[in-house]
Amino acid sequence: METLLYNIGEMLSGDLNSPRIEEDSIVLENGKIKSIGKEPTQSPHLKIDCKGMTVAPGLIDTHVHPTIGDFGTKQQSVGFLERMVHGAVTHAVSAGEVHVPGRSGADSALAIALAAYYSFKNYGPLGIKVHGGGLLLEWDTESKHIDQAYEGGIRLIGEVGIGSLKNPKRAGELSTYARELGMVVHMHCGATSDRGPGGEKHPYFSAEDVLTVRPSIASHANSFVSLSDEDVDLVCDHNEGPPFIEVVQAGGVKSMLRVVERLMDRDDLDRLLIGTDTPTGYGITSLGIIKTIGDICSMTELAPDVAWAIASGNAARAFNLEGHKIALGAPADIVVIDAALGSPQKSAIDALAKGEFPGVALVITDGKVRVNGSQCTLRSRRVAEINSI
């Protein structure tokens, strides 16, 4: 059974090297993108008139702290993952299930990570895909714990530094071991978020610490208390710096812009990731990825179509995830967006360039319409017309 999206105004690819596609239709079948710019091979069971709106791949939030299920203990909030879908996010990546209560060492950290991994492997509120199970490194973590996590399917090491292991040298040994297995390693940057006695032992994770640990990702380089300007420059410029550098909504704007502009100047935008760090003391940011894209595009020279590719296809590459591009055979995780009703802007792209929230008209995951009119953004100026045949 085919679904046809037609009358598309602008199409974003999610590909950094070629961020736009000059076509006006997409055919979906069995949860995948079957064709782009071609007529259906059979009468589609669903036709979606996009009314000239922008179609793009769903966004990835590269930094969330889930627990088990759609509940955040940090903010006592229910349904935050579902609400992220209303903000055009179709995939969320765990940076560690740090808010699950009762963690007390390596064995419990492993058990929590495995529980989260298997839970989210089979559960995604409103169709969101959650890459759960970020193993946190504790004072007693050994390589055997990483082996057990890997054998259980886990491919993430949660933020180095938010577990009880604070020693960069030892963390570096474990990080290198995990990366050699093929795991992706997050690392906390800036001031510690540890309220316990461990935080006093190592209150700030610097660029030198990042270079010692050698993670895959320098996570939230613009955290609540960000890396210093000198540390931002060192992480971005050092020839042994991390493959990816992340900025988040729950952090400082000035340091975020410094990271983005530094990477732009170096022609290294393929190292940039965008997350929210939800849920944190900052709160629940259902629209955090869209807002961060708008913030960056309105305050730098970064074009919205490129920023969208950073937050979709490029993020997928960082975590070895399938799809998040408009491409043949890719999972049909697609959003339809427009300038908000009442906005002076003509399109979603124009809105993002001005730092405005676009209206999310439709969210599709695995070929199924999950959101028809976001409950979190303002209403889109145009409304998609869906017809079943």
- Average pLDDT works out at 94
Q: Which percent bin holds the helix content?
A: 25-40%
The poorly predicted ranges are none
Major beta-sheet overview:
6 strands, mixed
Distance between the termini: 11 Å
How many domains?
A: 2
CATH overall fold name of the largest domain: TIM Barrel
The CATH homology group name of the largest domain: Metal-dependent hydrolases
Q: Which CATH class of the largest domain is shown?
A: Alpha Beta
Count, helices: 11
Strands ordered across the widest β-sheet:
3-2-7-21-22-23
Task: From the alpha carbons, calculate the radius of gyration and give it in angstroms.
Answer: 20 Å
CATH architecture type of the largest domain: Alpha-Beta Barrel
Number of beta-strand segments: 24
